[in-house]
Amino acid sequence: MLKVENLTASIGDVSILNGIDLEVGPGELHAIMGPNGSGKSTLCHAVMGNKDYTQGGTISVGDKDISSLPQNERSDSGVFQSFQYPVGLNGVTLMEFSRNINNELSDEEIIELAKKFNMEEFLDREVNVDLSGGEKKRSELFQLSLKNPKVALLDEIDSGLDIDAIKSVANLINETRESSTSYILVTHYSRILKYLDVDKVHVVVGGKVVKSGGNELIEEVDSGGYTQYREENWIKRTHGLKRIPWENSKSQNQHYMEHLQLEQ
Ligand code: ADP
Ligand code: MG
Predict the structure, then answer these.
(1) pLDDT: is 256 or 75 the higher one?
(2) Are 206 and 250 found together in one domain?
(3) Which of 31, 84, 162, 215 is the Cys-Cys partner for 156 at CB 3.0 to 4.6 Å?
(4) Domain identity same for 13 and 62
(5) Which mutation among 32, 42, 154 tests ligand 1's pocket best, with the greatest number of atoms within 8 A of CB?
(6) Could you tell me if the CB of 42 is within 6 A of ligand 1?
(7) Does 256 fall in a domain?
(8) Is residue 154 part of a domain?
(9) How far is the CA of 14 from the centre of ligand 1 (A)?
(10) Ligand 2 is a single-atom ion; what residues have CB below 5 A from it?
(11) What is the pLDDT of residues 17-54, one digit of tens each?
């Protein structure tokens, strides 16, 4: 179980996350959707404990508060992050890396698992070096499975993939999904979500969760884009107002002006 309360993250005096609350139960998969630059990757980095960011708020994994732990201890506490842009590790083979991720597994067990991800032929090669986009993402999911973490942060596991690769990545997630792991899957396209069993969707705009809901939100994002939430978020943030229920007969601005007049 992952619990994030009032999570903030900033760099210098630029605030990127402005108080995020999330609770992802064991076995659940929550999708984080949002436009470019809204803070989705920063959310993953902050939960993982990337020290580039000054962070506030509380992050717990099960009963353990990991908020003040360094990155490696968060990893030991069961947090795994798969990167939007996986970096190559020159000089380290995937086999060596795999032994490091989970030193309880024998080489035979690692090879067995690699087969599941079609990664067997990559074990003797350097991690993520000269791999295609799809192969890198498969490698990330293989590493996730090796670690069997309590919390999996999957940052744009679908980015840069063609439609067949997206389907195959989604299938791998479905086949290896563990009832003890809490999954956060970040994406700005709804495509991959259609192949997954999603428990909850959160829309992040301007470093805040502006809307949470079920599968119906995927459709809403698809049809209305992110601008619909941008406006809402701006009004909430600048005026501390609750969401104004728009009516079709009036423009959003008209409503907004009326609301302001009522306030004055
Ligand atoms: P997303 O993943 O939703 O596209 P990011 O979390 O990568 O968004 O970034 C959110 C905002 O924070 C962007 O404006 C980005 O430029 C800024 N940002 C993120 N990380 C850094 C960093 N290390 N240094 C400076 N700005 C950053
Ligand atoms: Mg990102």
Answers:
(1) 75
(2) no
(3) 84
(4) yes
(5) 42
(6) yes
(7) yes
(8) yes
(9) 10
(10) 40-41, 84
(11) 999 999 999 999 999 999 999 999 999 999 999 999 99
Question: What is the Cα–Cα distance from 161 to 122, expressed in whole angstroms?
Answer: 19
Q: Assess whether the C-beta atom of 67 lies below 6 angstroms from ligand 1.
A: no
How remote is the CA of residue 85 from the centroid of ligand 2, in Å?
Answer: 9
Q: Same domain, yes or no, for 166 and 191? A: yes
Asked whether residue 214 falls in the same domain as residue 169, the answer is yes
11-21 burial by CB neighbour count: b if 16+ within 10 A, else e?
Answer: eeeebbbbebe
This prediction's pTM: 0.86
Least confident of 46-55, 197-206, 246-255: 246-255
**Statement to judge: residues 68 and 153 lie in one domain:** yes
15 belongs to a structural domain:
yes
The ligand with the least distance to the CA atom of 204 is 1
Nearest to 184 by CA among 117, 57, 84, 71: 84
pLDDT of residue 150 exceeding 50: yes
Contacts of 118 (CB under 8 A, 6+ apart): 138
The total domain count for the chain is 2
At residue 188, the pLDDT reads: 87
Q: Measured from the CB, is residue 37 less than 6 Å from ligand 1?
A: yes
Whether residue 185 sits in one domain with residue 218? yes
Predicted local distance difference test score (pLDDT) of residue 231: 56
Which two three-digit tokens encode residue 264?
């004055």
